[in-house]
Amino acid sequence: MTVASSLDKAKSWVKELQRQSNPNIVIALVGNKVDLVQPASAAASAADDSSVEPSADDEADDATATPDTPDAAGDAGKRQVSKDEAAAYALENSLLFFETSAKTGENVVEVFTDIGASCRDRA
Question: pTM higher than 0.70, yes or no?
């Protein structure tokens, strides 16, 4: 979660879920597109899978990706929301927290695995 407005929207959704749902609900706060804020070498190694060919969809995703700076011209390593800030919010609100990349697959499986485990533990 790198864009401040995304965290603000997520906080609003969390409040609504906590207000209207079962008290045992499992909520995961997931910041996507972490590949956009990692150093180029880390993002490249996470995406280094010779069996995956780039597609037109990948190019479209790149074109519409939410920049992590207000003007999109800044350094890709800059963030409006630190990982620590988002993790602290998640901890304060008993949420699972992950930073993921749908593009590289980083932490995607872990999100679903941990949600399933948490649901099982609360049942």
Answer: no
